[in-house]
Amino acid sequence: MRRPERIVILTGAGISAESGLATFRDKGGLWSKVDLNDVATPQGFARNPAMVHEFYNARRRSVLAAAPNEAHLALARLEREHDGQVLVVTQNIDDLHERAGSRQILHMHGELLKVRCEPCGKAREWRHDLATATPCPDCARAGGMRPHVVWFGEMPLHMDRIGTELAACDLFISIGTSGQVYPAGGFVEEARSHGRAHTVELNLEPSGGHSLFAERILGPATQVVPAFVERLLR
Ligand code: APR
Fold first, then answer.
1. Largest Cα–Cα distance of the chain, in whole Å?
2. Beta strands 110-117 and 145-149, pairing class
3. Is 145 within 8 Å of 60 (Cβ atoms)?
4. DSSP conformation letters of 182-216
5. Beta partners for 8?
6. How many CB atoms lie within 10 A of CB 94?
7. For position 1, what pLDDT does the model report?
8. Considering the chain, what is the average pLDDT of its residues?
9. For 17-52, how does the pLDDT look when each residue is reduced to its tens digit (9 = 90+)?
10. Nearest to residue 99, comparing CAs of 128, 126, 65?
């Protein structure tokens, strides 16, 4: 593989699994314990906001108690040492890429450590539990605060920028995602369709789109990601 200039890295829940954060579709994953329609859709939130707040309060506490792992740290090293652009596009709503030292990050599904007031639209950092009664610090209204995360049926964030970066990249790496949720599941084809990108999947097991990748490396992220970054930087 010739030396890449522009690297786009898509990450999913699998990169945070070894930091102790649950994935969604693995055995024992979040969606085997709770119905995503109840906690990850606007309809579910409208039906029972207290249950949705509790679901995200528990996940927020887990994120605050977790630490970045060797895979997150390796991607931050790649950004520091690679002579070219490195952009992390993450489906994850944790802040482990940030805490590992990555700077160029797009959270396409939002961020668990941010909340948004529906009535006034303001989003802000938030590291505490959230409840229906929590008043908005900006407009003082209660009842309208929600996690600043993208639910099913809502538009993922930063899609224009992501499309531009996929078209321009010459290396697309997918780490720790089942590739079952779109639009992220289609990014490998977007990167390939512009003809330039070499595509690599690093995952514990083959994802839904594994046959679309030019290269596949199977194993736990804390092992395969540092080794791949070492190879890129050599
Ligand atoms: N190392 C590498 N990969 C791993 C590890 C690990 N230690 N553990 C699990 N994986 C892989 C699994 O094999 C699986 O392919 O990570 C993937 C996790 O897939 P999902 O649970 O479907 O998570 P993800 O792909 O991020 O889900 C995408 O779906 O529910 C929505 O918004 C949610 O962002 C999420 C989106």
1. 56
2. antiparallel
3. no
4. TTGGGHHHHHHHTS--EEEEEESS--TTGGG-SEE
5. 87, 172
6. 25
7. 59
8. 96
9. 999 999 999 999 999 999 999 999 999 999 999 999
10. 65
Respond yes or no: is residue 109 known to be catalytic.
yes
Residue 154 CA to ligand 1 centre (angstroms):
20
Has this prediction a pTM greater than 0.85?
yes
Which residue's alpha carbon is nearest to atom 21 within ligand 1?
Answer: 24
Which residues are near ligand 1 (CB < 6 Å)? Answer: 12-14, 17-18, 23-26, 29, 91, 109, 176-178, 180-181, 203-205, 207, 220-221
Find all residues with CB under 8 Å of 82, minimum gap 6, and list them: 7, 232, 233
Query: Is residue 141 within 8 Å of 168, Cβ to Cβ?
Result: no
Q: How far is the CA of 25 from the centre of ligand 1 (A)?
A: 7
Helices (DSSP H) in the chain: which residue ranges?
30-33, 36-39, 42-47, 49-65, 70-81, 96-100, 159-168, 187-193, 221-233
Give which of 79, 70, 114 is closest to 94, Cα–Cα: 114
Contact 107/157 with Cβ under 8 angstroms?
yes
Tell me phi and psi for residue 212, to 5 degrees.
-85, -10
**pLDDT given at position 164:** 96
Token pair, residue 231, equals 């190879």
Q: What is the pLDDT of residues 157-181, one digit of tens each?
A: 999 999 999 999 999 999 999 999 9
Nearest-angstrom CA–CA distance, 68 and 37:
29
- Take residue 57 and report the two structure tokens written for it: 């309060």
